[in-house]
Specification:
The chain has 294 residues and is an alpha/beta fold. It has a single domain, classed as Nucleoside phosphorylase domain (Rossmann fold, 3-Layer(aba) Sandwich). The protein contains eight helices and nine strands. The chain has a five-stranded mixed β-barrel with strand order 5-8-7-6-9, surrounded by four helices. Strand 7, helix 6 and strand 8 form a beta-alpha-beta unit. The longest helix has 25 residues. The radius of gyration is 18 Å and the shape is globular. The relative contact order is 0.20. The structure holds the ligand O=P(O)(O)O[C@@H]1C[C@H](O)[C@@H](CO)O1 and guanine (GUN). The ligand O=P(O)(O)O[C@@H]1C[C@H](O)[C@@H](CO)O1 binds next to strand 5 and helix 8. One of its GO terms (cellular component) is cytoplasm. It comes from Danio rerio (Zebrafish).
Length: 294
Amino acid sequence: MTPDSATGYSYEECTATADWLLKRAPERPLVGIVCGSGLGGLAKMLKDELVINYCDIPNFPQSTVHGHAGKLVFGTLKGKPCVCMQGRFHLYEGYAIQKTTMPIRVFKLMGVETVILTNAAGGLNQDFKVGDIMIIKDHINIPGFAGHNPLVGANDDRFGVRFPCMSDAYDRDLQQLVRAVADELDFSVFMRDGVYSVLGGPSFETIAECRALRQLGADAVGMSTVHEVIVARHCDMRVLALSLITNKAVMDYQSEKKANHEEVLETGALRAKQMEKLVSTVVSRIPNTPTHCS
Ligand SMILES: O=P(O)(O)O[C@@H]1C[C@H](O)[C@@H](CO)O1
Ligand SMILES: Nc1nc2[nH]cnc2c(=O)[nH]1
């Protein structure tokens, strides 16, 4: 069998999509933001915005999940040009893993230097409370253990190297910046940091799975983000990722609690304002990558 990228998009297809978008965008974005479940309000922070529905963008997948609007929003945040995905793609929607991450490569080709990924996640760490915001410092790619990685297939060196390093996936300076901004905003009481584990979904975890993930070192569990991080790092963008702890994972056989998507969206709505303030202040302080003169 010849290795290929038949389940994904080629460099040329991603470039065609990026060029189509750049013809319409007010300017090249420097920051790309992905809104997690119930966190689509982040896009409303953008000024002078241009909204494009995913269904109008060539090659783009479509959002199918409640809480993911399916709109790409260009605009500025405190003067910095940004693009924001109101809606991401998950494995459980039936997309090939390479398709769920295709927009991240389009970000890169449009000029994005820094990607900010947000998600809703279940808290495994017993010290975490619903409404906490966790700065992701590392991840455990559970589907990856079985070979599900968005970089599977022929490697196109124009995007990045065959074997990218992941020990520095989450930019430490950006994590420090979030902590500093959270202190200033008086948000420290609900800020945490930790390890995010991804599962394929769409079923929520069993009690035994939650216990196993905790023993593996995970603080939160979700169904996204990690694959986007891998693709963003492959093409050398800086990554910041934040989880909103929307529910506590059920770890105890005596518990009557049941994870559900409605609670996820409700918690998103309750913390939306603080999440927006945190992200917009961080974006305004992200240093641009210095341009190199030859
Ligand atoms: O896109 P994210 O990771 O925020 O969405 C989470 C995981 C599932 O898609 C959904 C479960 O409620 O929320
Ligand atoms: N897998 C998973 N994803 C989530 N997204 C929000 N909450 C959860 C959760 O408890 N488990």
